[in-house]
Amino acid sequence: MPVPKKRFGQHFLRDESVLARIAQACAGMPGDHTLEIGPGDGALTAHLSRLGGELHVVEIDRDLIAGLRRRFANDRVIVHEADALRFSPCATVAGALRIVGNLPYNISSPLLFHFLGEPCIAGMVFLLQKEVVDRLAASPGGRDYGRLSVMVQARCEVMPLFTVAAAAFSPPPAVESRLVALRPVPTVVPPPAAALFSAIVAQAFSQRRKMLRQSLRGYFGDEDWRTLGIDATRRAETLSVAEFVALAVHAAT
């Protein structure tokens, strides 16, 4: 049994009932093939290998690669030794993909941003820190609502599934985890406004306690706020995804 490495944020999931439920959730997502991020020693991979299509796994820890290739030598499993943050799924796998993984907590948000907008991804199922899932699913006005909420909800339907206790892992993390499914939806952000949308959302939440008049003064003046019909004394955390889209479209014209 491999020794978890702290530098990779490894917490291996050992509860077979949880592993089976994750595979079941993945099977319910659309896609021709499956891509697993961070398979570790293959505990979840064994369940996923029973699904249809190819199973690609991306592992950064070179000490685990040989064991994965030995264990799944006779299955439809393709092992990639790579950093998931630099791995391009659409350039590697032909067809619609469902992505699944027990993501390292220290890079879960960068990984989510990395996969957003990839055209070949039909669905994602991730085990994340519970507070990250709370942020993904948060509504405007709540303390969990922020940049991550807006950016993901603009591109995906967010479906929190079930909580996983720390005891299901080795070693146990200091926090609870939660499984979440993300189903891409047609983008609500027009392509010409996409870069501005990202920039405006990031800027607004970098000063979330300031009024929009102050936090976004580099983008909008008083006349813009009147045209948009948005009260400039509001704060970023009160704006809906649709209102952020309207800001980006206005700034792009």
TrEMBL record:
Pfam families: RrnaAD (PF00398). Residues 18-186 form the Ribosomal RNA adenine methylase transferase N-terminal domain. S-adenosyl-L-methionine binds at H11, L13, G38, E59, D83, N102. It is found in: Cytoplasm. One of its GO terms (molecular function) is RNA binding. Signal peptide: none annotated. It catalyses: adenosine(1518)/adenosine(1519) in 16S rRNA + 4 S-adenosyl-L-methionine = N(6)-dimethyladenosine(1518)/N(6)-dimethyladenosine(1519) in 16S rRNA + 4 S-adenosyl-L-homocysteine + 4 H(+). It comes from the Bacteria. Keywords: Cytoplasm, Methyltransferase, RNA-binding, rRNA processing, S-adenosyl-L-methionine, Transferase. Transmembrane segments: none annotated. PROSITE patterns: SAM_RNA_A_N6_MT (PS51689). Its EC number is 2.1.1.182. GO terms for cellular component: cytosol. HAMAP family: 16SrRNA_methyltr_A. Belongs to the class I-like SAM-binding methyltransferase superfamily. rRNA adenine N(6)-methyltransferase family. RsmA subfamily. Specifically dimethylates two adjacent adenosines (A1518 and A1519) in the loop of a conserved hairpin near the 3'-end of 16S rRNA in the 30S particle. May play a critical role in biogenesis of 30S subunits. This is Ribosomal RNA small subunit methyltransferase A. It comes from Acidiferrobacter thiooxydans. The gene is rsmA.
